[in-house]
Design brief:
798 residues, six-stranded mixed β-sheet, alpha+beta, single chain, 33 strands, molybdenum, globular, Aldehyde Oxidoreductase, domain 4
């Protein structure tokens, strides 16, 4: 099915909305400022909480003296870790450790009880009538610490004399993995050329516009908690909060309003989710926590150091690849951010046909804040490393980097194809994507311009980067995992509502879901009401993660709508004296072959009011619930002991042109283009917007964004003056081309599209900077390529 199809549907509908760039159904509400975010929903009688945080990376809490602040204006309560520990248990992990480490202790308490394990860990909560009063009192809270030795780096964590970060563990190794295929040692011995490289990816963060915000409201009469907040995974949060507070899940309602950006950062596992519920139950009033920008910036991730080698023949054919990397994942809390480097290891060798590989991954704990999930989810790092290796091989052989890529791409006829990690890549045409990119970007023209523009002051650099982005994660043990559910109902007046367990991070997935349902029922998308993000109103689901909104949720909605259509077809057949299988739906009406028709509103009213005639032969009411369980997922280990936890494999290829100022180290982005393939696109405009945003994030990660710390472990990149995001003026127009190779494992041919773009942009931009550096580019081993780093390299050249 081509991505731009708008014709008669194969399932009996008169038309399909798949492939149409329908404007966002809620777009006017956002642009007009009518959308209400969590902080807009805080009631006037709510209390506000501020957190006193440890300034030390590792310290014993000797005492907390709250007497001086209890008498301050507006102060209602001061709660420390000891008291919180009596009122709740540690928050369980969103994705538990596997045996033999299933009983490992983590930092699951909402307040540190005796030891602070990272700078910024909350040690006490101050509750007041206003946010200002709470923050003023928290700043004055007298906390005495005994500073302990902290583990500040991955190398230190692995040292024999290193302190153990987590009490009760026998080492600082959190997890490890080894992925192999073929005989890499033999291939390296026989290769004509072997090139070694290193990449240290510095930590960065998601930096959403809207920080975390939670509102807990305990109803004493019902014995029930309502938690409203910046949440990507409402059902997972409900389970975690209920478990920590000793409540039944049905005694907790979780509501996720509109989100001001998420990018993975707002996935389940923030201990403040428990804290506001605990405080509301104790104090009998709603309690709100609104995170400040400084604390939002603590949510770092991506810190990995890779040492790799690539082997090839004289013609640029890749024979083998080897990578060994260590990831500093900080401390381990209830969230699942620490698992991202494990995904990194599974993506190699991405889109390339490399027979022999070896990848070793080691994750270590240090006295830093827990990793927060972020868009890319570790896959972007694998693509960066692989693309740097390909460029290094091309440079060593004196070959064009695009030509080397073309020579090694997996052919489309070889797909589906299993990666060494066990993941089963579904479909694609990588060679065609590269050819289209070269034309879209004007690769040859840029190479000519590069040669003409070389000067002593500036140099143009050109980079290419492929990415393979596994999507639709379905990992055993995750809560929940591998399926999504949709419930659809048509009211007696013909209104259609579909409720799903997926949520929206603000990306417009409601429009895509409405398009899928509308096409099945012969309606327009604006006739469909989509409900998400309320555990009292929607089926159990994962929420927003791994591009599952349309990939899983949309498929479930399509199935449920098909079941509803089947009921409506029987009812229409009863009225129009036709066979149900001959009924067609279009324009809000059911049509019989002879020309007769009936409006769906009238048909719905008839079915509900005349069940023995109009509704004869169906189960009323006009409702249906269906689940979609991912295909292309394998939980039984293969011959290598590997399972397959991702169901779809979108990909893209990117090109970038930059100008490097040799006097200042400044990089100006001149041109960016990408060709992207996520199978059948429901709404191309939404996909294009997603990938453009991801490309901007990838450019930021390549050039500017870095989380930094002082020697004592305190965060220094705590605002947008010290954590540098790309501005609109820093980016040229981002050109995006689309392809569609439908997935054979999805009923609608879709793949995920929510995370694509970041890894390819990160790789292409890094390669472009290295291209501009020329012979000294091998010294660029740290990402991002900031001006100070580039100046230091250029100074060595001089």
């Amino acid at each position: 099915m081509d991505a731009t199809t708008f014709a008669e549907g194969a399932d009996g509908t008169a038309e399909t909305w798949i492939g149409r760039s329908v404007a966002r159904l809620d777009g006017h509400a956002y642009t007009a400022g009518r959308v209400r975010y969590t902080a807009d929903l805080i009631p006037a009688d709510a209390l506000h909480v501020a957190l006193a945080r440890s300034p030390h990376a590792h310290a014993r809490i000797v005492s907390i003296d709250a007497d001086a602040v209890r008498g301050m204006p507006g102060i209602v309560a001061v709660v420390d870790g000891a008291e919180a520990g009596r009122l709740c248990t540690p928050m369980p992990m969103a994705l538990p450790f596997r045996p033999p480490h299933a009983d490992r202790a983590i930092l699951g308490r909402c307040l540190a009880d005796s030891i602070a394990h990272f700078a910024g860990q909350p040690v006490a909560a101050v509750v007041a009538e206003s946010q200002h009063e709470a923050e003023a009192a928290a700043d004055r809270l007298a906390v005495r610490y005994e500073v302990l030795r902290a583990v500040r780096s991955a190398d230190e964590a692995l040292g024999e004399a290193a302190p153990i970060v987590h009490p009760g563990w026998d080492s600082n190794v959190v997890a490890s993995d080894r992925v192999t295929a073929g005989d890499p040692a033999g291939a390296f011995r026989l290769a004509a050329r072997v090139v070694h490289g290193e990449i240290a990816v510095r930590p960065s963060t998601a930096a959403p516009i809207e920080p975390l915000c939670y509102l807990g409201a305990w109803d004493e009469r019902l014995g029930r908690l309502t938690l409203t907040g910046t949440l990507q995974n409402p059902h997972t949060t409900r389970w975690q909060v209920a478990a920590s507070l000793g409540l039944r899940e049905t005694d907790v309602r979780v509501v996720a309003p509109a989100a001001g950006g998420a990018f993975g950062f707002k996935m389940a596992g923030h201990t403040e989710e428990v804290l506001v519920g605990l405080l509301s139950r104790r104090l009998g009033r709603p309690v709100a926590y609104v995170e400040n920008r400084r604390d939002t910036m603590r949510g770092h991730c991506r810190e990995q150091t890779h040492r790799f080698a690539i082997a090839g023949d004289a013609d640029g054919r890749i024979l083998a690849f080897r990578d060994s990397f260590v990831a500093d994942v900080g401390t381990i809390g209830p969230g699942n951010g620490w698992t991202m480097p494990l995904i990194t290891a599974t993506v190699f060798p991405t889109v390339y046909d490399v027979p022999d590989i070896e990848v070793d991954a080691t994750l270590v704990a240090t006295n830093k804040a827990p990793w927060q999930p972020v868009r890319g989810y570790g896959k972007e790092i694998a693509n960066l490393v692989m693309e740097r290796a390909v460029d290094l091989l091309a440079g060593a052989l004196g070959l064009d980097p695009a030509a080397v890529r073309a020579r090694n791409l997996v052919p489309s006829k070889a797909l589906p194809r299993r990666l060494p990690s066990g993941l089963n890549v579904d479909s694609g045409d990588y060679s065609e994507a590269l050819a289209r990119l070269r034309a879209l970007f004007g690769y040859e023209s840029w190479r000519e311009r590069q040669a003409e523009a070389r000067s002593r002051e500036t140099r143009i650099g050109i980079g290419i980067g492929f990415e393979l982005t596994p999507e639709g994660g379905a990992r055993p043990g995750a809560f929940p995992s591998g399926f999504e559910t949709a419930s659809i109902r048509m009211s007696p007046t013909g209104d259609v509502q579909v409720a799903l367990g997926v949520t929206s991070p603000g990306s417009g997935n409601e429009t895509g879901i409405a398009q899928l349902v509308a096409g099945v029922l012969g309606l327009r998308p604006e006739a469909i009401r989509v409900v998400q993000g309320d555990t009292d109103a929607v089926p159990v689901g994962t929420g927003n993660a791994s591009s599952r909104a349309l990939l899983y949720g949309g498929a479930a909605a399509h199935l449920a709508a098909s079941d509803l259509r089947a009921k409506l077809a029987v009812c229409a057949g009863n009225v129009l004296q036709a066979r149900a299988e001959d009924i067609r739906f279009a324009g809000g009406r059911a049509h019989a072959p002879g020309g007769g028709s009936i409006g769906l509103a009238a048909l719905a009213l008839g079915a509900h009011t005349h069940p023995f005639t109009v509704g004869d032969g169906i189960e009323l009411p006009l409702e249906a619930t269906r689940s979609y369980r991912a295909r292309n997922v394998r939980v039984t280990p293969d011959e290598a002991g590997r399972i397959a936890t991702y169901s779809s494999f979108p990909y893209s290829v990117h090109a970038a042109a930059i100008e490097l100022d040799r006097g200042t180290g400044r990089v100006a982005v001149l041109d960016v283009a990408a060709v992207h393939d996520c199978g059948v696109m429901v709404n191309p405009a939404l996909v294009t917007g997603q990938i453009r945003g991801a490309i901007a994030m990838g450019i930021g990660a390549a050039l500017w964004e870095e989380t930094t710390y002082a020697e004592d472990g305190r965060l220094t990149s705590d605002r947008f003056k010290t954590y540098l995001l790309p501005r609109a003026t820093d980016l040229p127009p981002i050109r995006v081309g689309h392809m569609s190779t439908p997935s054979p494992f999805h009923p609608l041919g879709m793949k995920g599209g929510g995370e694509s773009g970041l890894g390819g942009a990160l790789a292409a931009m890094t390669n472009a900077v290295c291209d501009a550096l020329g012979p000294v580019s091998r010294r660029l081993v740290t990402v991002p390529a900031t001006p100070p780093r580039l100046l230091a390299i250029l100074a060595e050249e001089a």
